Structure formats: structure tokens, C-alpha cells
């Protein structure tokens, strides 16, 4: 491939954006279906929450151990392998007949569904530098929309055709994507000539070198923990309310969260007008304000809609702004910086899911809201320090 990027058809960028959304959805189909899964396998709500937790843990480990390979092997081949493995794990999940196998399949789905994080470096490599920010923004928008719509699709399809068919259909979609992307994406030369161990060993060095990376990653972990805590327990809360709402209702609330995509798309423009610290504090305050509203929705759905809107809006504004600032710390190590940030963030998401399950089991919905609000407040303090901390050091 020529070293200079040439014109790339717009449909290729949109295909990559769609791919990011479709593949990341694998990690979230289970969340509005946890109540159904608990019923199928006759386990407690607390035990069922481990499905989501292990999926997030698998995703975090995939980001840590597989994502760095994007600098060492042909990314197109890596994507093909990951999509085939994702299809196999989704099919295994759909056919699981015992709970331990379901947990193992859920973990493996997360481990292999890292394609959305392989795509941004490809975009920056195949488009002219002047077009790269907008193109990467499209891919990120697709990813965020996929997260939102996955809960809606999972909840509604699960109610219509059952959770097993939801995951079986997702497996078929992965195979179809593999065929399409194999033809649409160019073969790309690896960017890193060192060993795999050297690649991994550089990750903690980056974390030690950049104070801003440490602070933004910690805040992201806390915020995504609160975010995951809410979504992984919502289905239990809705089923426990006087209306005994189904997974379909949980999916509907996920659709409301699509407003967060607007926040992600506007984050770059807002950051140009205000300081990073201002944007992070504003977005963090929105997230923290959501949980008192969730608590007010203990017996009624009235406050739930505005709370979901501001939670997603704050979450995505903070995430996009943080990532944009992290990737420019060292352009030569952008993929590894992304690995450190995303691994920390999704580890926080996995921990948040566990905390949510424990809070629900021991204190119900109000305990969940208290735990989520506390995580957001700590993240707000951390983000307040980000603007005054040096980038390095």
C-alpha cells in the first residue's frame, strides 16, 4: 500500500461506522435480558448480573492483550479473525444449557468483540490527515449509537423471539460483516516492528509517564462503572415495580439514551470553546445529577426519561473529550494510549456491574442509586484535577 493515503469512498467510512456499532452491540444485548436469563437458568438477580460483568471483563482483557496487535499485524486479517471468533461465541451463548457455560460464553463474547477499537487507527491510515478527525468521529458515532440501540434491540427482540434467537442472529451478522469487510478494507502494513512482549511492556510506562492519562483513565473508569451499574440493574428494577415491566421496557429506555450520541458529536466543538476541565466538570455534573432523579423514580417512571437523557449525554461528552485529549499526548503511541484508557475504563465498567448487583441484592434500587451517585461524585473530583495537572509527569 502506498505510504500516502488516497481518496477513500465515503461508503467505506460509513461501513466502518456501522461495523463499530454492530459489533460493540454484542457486549450489551444481555443487559435488558438479564431478568429473562435469570428465569431461564433459575438463578438469582445477583448471579445473573455476572453475565454482564464477565462480558465487560472479557472486553477489557481483549483491549489489553489483543488490541495492541493492531500495530503488529495486518489489521484487516485481525478483524476477520475476531469476527469469526465472535460469531462462534455468540452461537455458543445462544445454545448454552447450563449457567457456567453461559458465563464462559459471555466472557468470550466480550474478549472477541474488540473490532470497534481496531477501526479508528485504520481510518487515520487510509484517509488524508485533513479528513481524519471527521472520519474517526463518524466511526465513534456509530459505536455509541450501537451501544444505545443494542439495549433497545436486545430488549424488544428478546420479548418477541426469545433471548436465544437474539444471540444466534447476532452470530450470523458477524459472519456477514467478515465477508463484507474482507472485500471493502485495504490490506494494511503493520506499524510496529518490535515484539509482542515489547508492545505490552510499554503500556505501564505510558501510564507512569503521563499524569493526564492517569487522571482521565481513572475518571472514565468511575463514570463507566456508574453507567454500567445503572443499566445492568434497570431490568430488575422495572420488573420489581408495580407495573412489573418486561425487558421490552428496559430496551425502550435504552433508546431514549440515543441523545447521548448528540453529546459525543458536539463534544469536540464544545472543547474548542471551553477548557477541557470545564467540559469534564460539566459532563460529570450531568451524570451525578442523574442518580437523584433515578432515586425519585423508585415507584414511578416519571423521572426516569430525563435522568436517562442526562446520564447518557454526560457520559458520552466526557468520554469523547477524554479520548481526544489522550490520543494527542504521544501520536506515535496513540494505539497504546487508547489501550490503557479503554482497558481502565472497561475494567471500571465490569466493577460497576458487580457493585450494582451487590447493591441491588442488599439494598434494592435506592442502594443502586446511592452507589452510582457516589461513583460519579468521585469522578467529578478527579476530573476537576485534570485541568490543573500537567499532561506528563
Walk me through what this model shows:
The mean pLDDT is about 85. About 80% of the residues lie in helices and about 0% in strands. Helix 4 (about 75-95) packs antiparallel against helix 5, helix 9 (about 195-210) runs parallel beside helix 15 and helix 10 (about 210-240) crosses helix 11. The protein is built from 15 helices and no strands. It has one domain (about 10-185, about 195-385): Growth Hormone, Chain: A. It has about 400 residues and is mainly α. The longest helix is centred in the last third of the chain and has 53 residues, at about 335-385. It has helices spanning about 10-25, 35-40, 45-65, 75-95, 100-110, 115-125, 130-160, 165-185, 195-210, 210-240, 245-255, 260-275, 275-295, 305-325, 335-385. It starts with 9 loop residues before the first helix and ends in a 7-residue tail after the last helix. This is MFS transporter. It comes from Ancylobacter mangrovi.
Amino acid at each position: 500500500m502506498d505510504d500516502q493515503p488516497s481518496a477513500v469512498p465515503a461508503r467505506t467510512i460509513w461501513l466502518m461506522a456501522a461495523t463499530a456499532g454492530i459489533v460493540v452491540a454484542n457486549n450489551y444485548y444481555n443487559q435488558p435480558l438479564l431478568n429473562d436469563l435469570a428465569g431461564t437458568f433459575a438463578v438469582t438477580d445477583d448471579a445473573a448480573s455476572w453475565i454482564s460483568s464477565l462480558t465487560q471483563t472479557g472486553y477489557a482483557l481483549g483491549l489489553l492483550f489483543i488490541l495492541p496487535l493492531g500495530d503488529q499485524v495486518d489489521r484487516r486479517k485481525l478483524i476477520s479473525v475476531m469476527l469469526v471468533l465472535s460469531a462462534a461465541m455468540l452461537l455458543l451463548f445462544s445454545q448454552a444449557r447450563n449457567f457456567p457455560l453461559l458465563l464462559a460464553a459471555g466472557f468470550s463474547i466480550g474478549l472477541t468483540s474488540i473490532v470497534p477499537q481496531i477501526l479508528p487507527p485504520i481510518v487515520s491510515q487510509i484517509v488524508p490527515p485533513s479528513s481524519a478527525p471527521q472520519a474517526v468521529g463518524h466511526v465513534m458515532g456509530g459505536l455509541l449509537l450501537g451501544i444505545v440501540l443494542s439495549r433497545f434491540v436486545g430488549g424488544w427482540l428478546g420479548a418477541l423471539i426469545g433471548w436465544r434467537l437474539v444471540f444466534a442472529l447476532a452470530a450470523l451478522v458477524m459472519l456477514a460483516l467478515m465477508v463484507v469487510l474482507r472485500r471493502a478494507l485495504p490490506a494494511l502494513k503493520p506499524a510496529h516492528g518490535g515484539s509482542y512482549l515489547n508492545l505490552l511492556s510499554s503500556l505501564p510506562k505510558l501510564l507512569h509517564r503521563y499524569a493526564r492519562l492517569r487522571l482521565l483513565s481513572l475518571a472514565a473508569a468511575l463514570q463507566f462503572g456508574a453507567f454500567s451499574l445503572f443499566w445492568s440493574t434497570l431490568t430488575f428494577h422495572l420488573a420489581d415495580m408495580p407495573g412489573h415491566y418486561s425487558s421490552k421496557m428496559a430496551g425502550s429506555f435504552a433508546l431514549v439514551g440515543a441523545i447521548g450520541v448528540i453529546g459525543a458529536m458536539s463534544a469536540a466543538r464544545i472543547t474548542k470553546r471551553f477548557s477541557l476541565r470545564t467540559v469534564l466538570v460539566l459532563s460529570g455534573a450531568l451524570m451525578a445529577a442523574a442518580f437523584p432523579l433515578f432515586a425519585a423514580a423508585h415507584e414511578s417512571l416519571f423521572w426516569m426519561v430525563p435522568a436517562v437523557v442526562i446520564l447518557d449525554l454526560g457520559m458520552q461528552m466526557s468520554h469523547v473529550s477524554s479520548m481526544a485529549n489522550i490520543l494527542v499526548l504521544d501520536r506515535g503511541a496513540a494505539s497504546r494510549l487508547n489501550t490503557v484508557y479503554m482497558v481502565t475504563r472497561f475494567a471500571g465498567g465490569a466493577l460497576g456491574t458487580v457493585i450494582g448487583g451487590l447493591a441491588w441484592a442488599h439494598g434494592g434500587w435506592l442502594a443502586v442509586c446511592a452507589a452510582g451517585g457516589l461513583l460519579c461524585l468521585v469522578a467529578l473530583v478527579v476530573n476537576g484535577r485534570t485541568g490543573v495537572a500537567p499532561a506528563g509527569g
